[in-house]
Design brief:
The structure holds two protein chains of two kinds.
Chain A: H1 3-11, H2 17-37, E1 38-42, E2 57-61, E3 75-79, E4 86-94, E5 98-102, E6 105-108, E7 111-112, E8 126-130, E9 135-139, E10 153-156, E11 160-164
Antiparallel strand pairs in A: 1-2, 2-11, 3-4, 3-11, 4-9, 5-6, 5-8, 6-7, 9-10
Chain B: H1 2-24, H2 28-43, E1 45-46, H3 51-62, E2 65-73, E3 78-82, H4 84-97, E4 98-113, E5 117-130, E6 136-149, E7 152-161
Parallel strand pairs in B: 2-7
Antiparallel strand pairs in B: 1-4, 2-3, 4-5, 5-6, 6-7
Helix pairs in contact in B: 3-4
The chains are: A alpha+beta, B alpha+beta.
């Protein structure tokens, strides 16, 4: 077949039964993949700066924790009432650990944690608290805001919808 | 010719029945979703409005709530029962302080419907621009109990869910 004929056949295919079945399969696969496995999202806000910037596009890979649980330093998406709006945060502690902040420094089990992903901090002070069973403690990378204005804390693991694809 | 006339009548009647069906036979879930959508639509404000129109809007919104309506928003220091008059006054005050208000609702899940009550959760994204200050954008998961009276549903118990517990 000549290149011109191939191009013509590509852009103007013959509508056969096989063609329709393939088309339907592609459409169904796309819906399943982009609705349940790789959920597209756009970052809104500055909670994860400098790791993720406002306006960036990404996918939430929902199968990441199918056989595993979130671990410290994982970046996760936290589901709210559904998956249309999610919170993008970093896991800093898991169940049974204690979390505290002293003058902006994160402490887990009373030991300081090195956080190379945090560029600037403010003097956050938070007394130690233990992460409940079946929960993870998440914080955003942007610590250059007042502690009261930054959403962070512990949340049930079943609220973790997945991880950013990149 | 006679046949054609009857066919036409049947088609018109069928179309009318199809159009009227959703109005007369709406499920409770659909009615609740519409009521929440209506609340979001009415809460929005674009540009300045007169004292009178702010009052009218506040009064209309307050009619969507049961009397009394319990509101629990720990982050704002709110935990009390509101009468329609209290609500109307509070909504009016908020509208007078803000130039723009935009409320968008996502992921409305009607989790349980009993005879006269329904439990609903949804994510609310509120963007507001006060007359003095910066634009504020907030994300909240809201749990609502709704009360049925006649064919209408009213908001009777509203709680901001603490997704991340510091």
């Amino acid at each position: 077949m000549k290149t011109g004929d191939l191009a013509f056949a590509f852009f103007f295919p013959r509508i056969t039964r096989t063609y329709i079945v393939r088309l339907l399969l592609v459409a169904v696969s796309a819906v399943v993949i982009f609705r349940f496995v790789l959920i597209p999202y756009r970052v809104e806000g500055y909670s994860m700066v400098p790791t993720y910037q406002d306006g960036e596009f990404n996918f939430c890979f929902s199968l990441r924790y199918a056989f595993d649980t979130p671990a410290p330093s994982d970046i996760v998406l936290i589901r709210m009432a559904g998956s249309r709006v999610m919170l993008l945060k970093r896991v800093v502690a898991t169940e049974g650990q204690t979390v505290s902040f002293s003058d902006g420094q994160l402490y887990v089990d009373l030991s300081p944690v090195a956080e190379p992903y945090v560029s600037r901090t403010r003097p956050w002070n938070l007394p130690p608290r233990t992460v409940k069973k079946g929960h993870v403690y998440v914080v955003g990378d942007n610590r250059d805001v007042a502690m009261e204005r930054h959403d962070f804390g512990q949340t049930p693991i079943d609220r973790v919808a997945g991880v950013p694809l990149w | 010719m006679v046949k054609l006339k009857y066919i036409f009548i049947v088609v018109v009647l069928t179309a009318a029945a199809a159009g009227a069906y959703p109005y007369f036979f709406q499920s409770d879930t659909t009615r609740i979703q519409k009521q929440i959508g209506r609340l979001a639509e009415m809460a929005c404000k674009d540009g300045s409005e007169t004292e009178l129109s702010a009052g009218v809007a506040a009064r209309k919104i307050s009619r969507m709530f049961a009397a009394p309506c319990r509101i629990e928003a720990p982050g704002y220091g709110i935990l009390r029962d509101y009468t329609p008059n209290d609500l109307s006054a509070s909504i009016g005050a908020v509208r007078r302080q803000h130039e723009e208000i935009d409320l968008v609702i996502y992921d409305v899940n009607v989790t349980e419907i009993k005879e006269n009550t329904a439990d609903v959760v949804f994510t609310a994204v509120l963007t507001s621009m006060p007359f003095s200050g910066h634009s504020v954008r907030e994300f909240h998961e809201i749990a609502v109990q709704m009360l049925k009276s006649g064919r209408s549903w009213y908001f009777s118990d509203i709680r901001i869910v603490n997704v991340l517990e510091k």
